[in-house]
Write the structure tokens for this entry.
Amino acid sequence: MVKKAFKVLLPLLVGVALLVWIYRDFDFSSFGESLSEMDWWWMAASLFFGAMSYVVRGVRWRILLQPMGIDVPNALCVNSVNVAYMMNIVIPRVGEVSRCALLKRYDGIAFSSSLGTIVTERAIDMVCILLISFLAFVLDRGVFLDFFETTGVDAGSYTGIFHSSRFYLLAACAVAALLVLWWVLSRFAFWAKVKSMLANMYHGAMSITKVRRPWLFIFYTVCIWVCYYLHFYLTFYCFGFLSELDGMAGLVLFVLGSFAVVVPTPNGAGPWHYVVIVGLMMYGVSRSDAGLFALVVHTIQTFLVVAMGVVSLFLLQFRKA
């Protein structure tokens, strides 16, 4: 019980602490007035693309499951994805587990098999964000360098790691330790079950090589990331002080925010606000306006995730377990 409470409370406390620090001198007196002046039609458009990104992700997941002989309805996949995103707000990274658990409960799908497909999804997401980041860096390299300088990040210190012999020595030791651990565990009887589970995960992860309609899978992947981008960028038009920023600025801030949500706080609360505020200030936006934008947009988008998760949980009740 204490361990579970710790998993829930620690990310929440970290997120709250960061938000308190970021908004420690923020003037909330004009918050209500700013909300009333927002262009909510643009926010509605943003939320539409946000919702579509989850729907398309669910439909794409079904394509990954099919090569393993798993043919579940699109609705179950989409609802499972929605619940997963909501669960990630409560306990970061637990959503992936909940997706597999829902498939097992409602369609009897082996947990380890569906988990393997999610491992593949995460690998594809990483490749996509790296490609988008590379594109943004090439097109607007100066902003990224200014951001690194402003935040005190020395990019060269990270790339220099790969030129150090110590790095490769530690890597070799880690591989050797894993091999020894593998050999030791294989001496125990329960290892057969572990191997079976790992085999299922591997089978699920490799389903990407056997998708029946690879071009459709690629199309859905592109759609997901276009929707993610529009979900963020269209919110610029909700605020008069951001309407002059172009799509390139939106792409740069989208990339910075995407890396910020890797920090395990509820929906990236805290780190996301920080990088977006710093990024907007580099484009000439005042700190108070940037803080207002980050707070309003993150809050509304988090409500969208919760709302879709709650609706999906309700819809799942009509499906016989």
User: Anything to note?
Assistant: Residues 37-155+164-316 form one domain. The chain has a mean pLDDT of 81.
